[in-house]
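Predict the assembly for these two chains.
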Amino acid sequence: MRVLTGLLLAILTTFSSLGVAGPKFEHWTLDSGLRVYYVDIQDLPMLDINVTFDAGSARDGKKAGVANLTMSMMDSGSAGMSADEIAEAFESVGARLYASASKDMANIGLRTITLEKPFNKAIDNWLSVMKSPDFPKADFERLQKQMKVSFESSKQRPGSIAGEAFNKNLYGDHPYAQPTRGFEDTVAAMTTEDLKAFYDQYIVEENAMVTIVGAVSREEAEVLAKRVAEVLPAGEKAKPIPEVKPLTEAKTVHIPFPSSQAHILIGQTGYKRGDPDYFKLYLANHPFGGSGFTSRLMKEIRVKRGLSYSVYSYFSPSRELGPFVMGLQTKIEQIDEAKEALNQMLKTYLKDGATAEEIEESKLNITGGFPMNIAGNSNIGNYADVIGFFDLPLDYLEHFTDKINEVTHEEAADAMRRRINPEAMLTIIVGGEEKKDSDKADGKTEGQ
Amino acid sequence: MQRILSSGKAIRHFRFLFLSLLLLSASAGADSTVSAPVKSKSGVSVKTLDNGLKILVKEDHRAPIAVVQVWYRVGTSYEHEGITGLSHALEHLMFKGTTKRKSGEFEVALSRIGAENNAFTSQDYTAYYEVLAAKHIETAIDLEADRMRNLVLDKLEFLREIEVVKEERRTRTDDNPNSKMREQFNAVAYLNNPYRAPVIGWMEDLDNMNLDDLKDWYAKWYAPNNATLVVAGDVDPQEVFALATKYFGDYKAVKLPVVKPRTEIPQIGLREIVIKAPAKVASFMMGFKTPGMITAKLGKVEKWEPYALDVLANILDGGSSARFAKKLVRGKEIAAGASAGYMGYGRMPQMFMVSGVPATGVEVDVLRKAIMEEIELMKTSLVTADELERVKAQVLASEIYQRDSVSHMAITLGSLEATGLGWELMDEYEEQILAITPEQIQQVAKKYLNEDQMTFARLEPQSLTSGGDK
């Protein structure tokens, strides 16, 4: 793996749904309202079934962390089964139960083999877990204690501190400012009543979609989808989350930390799913900092100047505006040099744009890499989730490469210029001592 | 480009190899015996070229993609003190120019066909890979063959790249208290065996590394008779063999250095260290010296022993129904996390590893004691039929899930081959695991999980003095 975690992240988040002449997505909606996405893949005797809810941490409100806690409790008790019994029920048939929350989504999923006996048992248990979670108090208190360790652990990782500070300062009072796992105090103050209320409001059919990917027939998939609908109350669709207001002026936050390196993140808001500039911006970022070792950032900052092991830029689209981020890690003495290099390179790139040749190279890379993105059950399952959740067209994958190829290098440069304002960049530095000359610093932010 | 340093739990990624195998492969070139292609029950086709290059092809026609990997039998465990990190540093430089291609051309050629490429170094091997559309495998094979023998090691590029490696070390180890603990744990657990050194190298060794060190290392180890080409995906084995012959076939086998055994001396008592580093969360790790798969392969222990250790690890930590999660995380609620893993896939024996993070307000010693009690329990009573069935069900299911990743299949083959265990182990793994009995698990627990063969390291958090957390 390319080891550049930032880059990987970029690929996964911005690019998690492309295809060539790939998988055939089938879609239908049950009379009761549940949206179903199905891909028939018979190669391996396995199935992924995943219900996604519009119930990410963007829905947390003042109870920061409630979506994550709710999902984390899914394996802790249901219909009278204890956490031990749930664990044994799934693992005795080699099945895996997944439940998690991200900023836009919450999901409850299952991976199982499709041999009849284990399959039936896994499906029955999975539906039962989704239908009647008990949220046992004792288990919840244990989870709260574990979260405390997780919060403490983040305080010793400069990269985590930088990431949270970035979102906090980028999003201000928008829900995206809050970390998905919440804050120490909000998690400590939470009760199982809060979780139940969240569950009752958001884990409902009107707010859900299901993806079924693997070795089941269309008829079997139809039955499965109906069984999912039967365990979910109808409920109501969640209201849209607020729009994000982009930053209007530059801001720098330097958080001291006793590390040998500083983590530097520079960025601002980018684009959202379904954005009219989606393909232009995706392509425009690629030769700048999204293509790995052929990118401008990598060639200059790592290869030519040896300043950082990892350097990248990416857009991470979400329901509302996701971030545009440039990042690197460098030893403390090189903070200024590295930061200036990033800013200067961005300015130059915005002014001149990519060369026609760079754009051509990027198109080749993106379209050539397409088959890998749609290979395997896991990848296809991920696409199905994204296509369904963001209401993307079913032929989204089929046309992705065409849409990329249609963008001209002038259009890419123009979109980048319109959408990225170099005068309003947020800069987060974690590591070393705070310097007095940091422009417009708002001083220390809390280390979370 | 580069690198995954393997550490932590080894699933099947380690590597073994014994001295005689290296010598044998060196002379295999001279014998000029060409093996007839063979296809195994798991659908792996095998061929060895005159010059010793071994080729493994695993067909998977689900999607029009392929993985090309070249594995070299060289890594940190081939290094000695003073030159630690050399294999990994060379891996970085392997992405520069060759006598045929200028620096940077390699990346451009692969980028144009949409290939993802990188490399990783471990204690026992250095591996390079491309993941790409199957129709482009010739490009990858051409590029890999080129850099096997024609690398140009340039002074200026080295001077820049070694700074990148140092930044990598800072990111991975120096600023990560748990990595620091792991690094020092290894240095204490192994006294005379090269597994004591970090894959990325000690900082001072990086400071003093020079271009000649790299040239020497490249000349010694980068040869067809020290490599395995693995290709998996939507490919035809005969076509792969033909391409390999075309691009690698003209290289001559070289005489490989003799690798001294450096077998770890027997441990004769508990070793214990404390790591003080800026941190917030206390944690610890312990390792028990165990035989590896290689030990069994050499006939020094019963063949089932490593598999019994593997199952034992799963009884303790094979999911949420395993004993650590059930009894220590839930149950007594004294662990925020606890894990166990058998590292048995190296070219030399390693350890059975356990690590723990105490729950809030719980002392390290409390969790440590509870873990030792769990280990004692493995010696005094047999695991239940239910537990064993659960482990086996998970193994069977995992074998299916893992087939979803072509890269995973290729890595399994390549690492087994590069460690001297032999890729054929893949074919027997499942059967061997399924045959393990409760009595065998008890026997290996008694035989190996003893305090006299244990190393213990504890992270004692120090204030993040200038941190913004207070």
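The longest strand of chain B covers residues 454-462. Chain B touches chain A through 82 residues (CB under 8 Å).
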